[in-house]
Specification:
single chain, 314 residues, Spore Coat Polysaccharide Biosynthesis Protein SpsA, Chain A, 2 domains, seven-stranded mixed beta sheet, four-stranded antiparallel beta sheet, 10 helices, 17 strands, 32% helix
Amino acid sequence: MNYIVSIHYNNIELLETQYKSIQRHIQGNYTYIVFNDGIEFHNDIINTCNKLGIKCINIDQSVHVDRNVLFPKELYGMRKLMNNPPLNSTNELYWKNMKFNGYNSELNNSVGSRHCDSAQFIINYFLNISDTKYLFNIDADMFLIDNINIDDFMENHDIASFFQGRRINNTKYWEYIWPNIFIINYKNCPNLKEISMDGTFLYDNNKMVCVTDTGGETGYYLEKYKNILKIKNINCKMIINDNEIDKYNSEIKNQKIITYLLKMNEINSGTGPNKELFLNDCIMHLRGAGSNWIKKSKEYNKMQIKLFNEIFNF
C-alpha cells in the first residue's frame, strides 16, 4: 500500500483542501493519513478528519519533551548539545545557527525540533505497518494541482526528496532529506530504523561550521547506504520574488498557476508570491501557511487558501 501523510497542527483551513487535491490528482491505490500534532487546534483537526472520513493519528505530545524516545540511539550531536547546551557566549555560532534553523532557547518545544519529532514519529510508525510500500510525506501547506502516480514516479528508485544541503568546506557538501516532502520505499530501503529526521551539527576538523535544518541527520543514512540506495530528486521551482514569475512563465503550462502567482504578487504589493512548485509543477507549496514561520496574520492565511480554492476549483 502507498501511504500519503501530512502533519497538521496550526492552520485548519489547509486540511480539507489538501484532502480534495489528493482525491482529485493521485492515481493508483493509496491511503491518506493525517498526523495530528495540534495543540490549540487538536480537536478541530480530529473533528475535520471525522467529517471527511480521513484517518487521523494523534502524535503523543510527550515525544516533544523527551526527544530521545523517538530517535535512533546514536546521538550525532544535535541532541547531545540540546541536552547540555552552552550557557554563555563562548559558542556564539551554536546559538546563531540554532535560531536561524527554527530552534530557540526552549529547544524541545521550538518549531524546528517539533517538526523533527513529528517526522520521526511518522518514520517509526510505518516501520510497524507491514504492507507499506511507498511513504509519501507532504507539508500541510502543499496541494496537488496535477496528476501524480507514485509507483510510476518512483520506478526503480528508493528515496525521493527535494534534497537540502550545507557546505562543510570547499570539497565537502552535506546532503540530506527535506522532511517537508519525501517519498521512501519501505520495501527496498535497508535498516530504516537507523534513519533520523533530526537536525544535526556539521564539523570541519572538529570545528562546528553550521547547523542543518530539520532532517539533517538523514545525511548519515544516505552516506552509509550510498552504494545501495537509488536516489531521485524532486524538482522545484522557487517563485519567491516577482521577477521569478517572468523567469518561469514560459515553462509553466497550467495557466491557473500563473493566475494565482500574479494575484498573490499583487496582494503582497509586488514583493513576490512566495510560492514553490514541486514534482514537475504537480504540487504547489504555500510557503509558511502551515507553521506560519513567515508571521502572517490569520486573515492573510485564510485569504490565500480561499484564493487558491477559487482558482483551482477546490
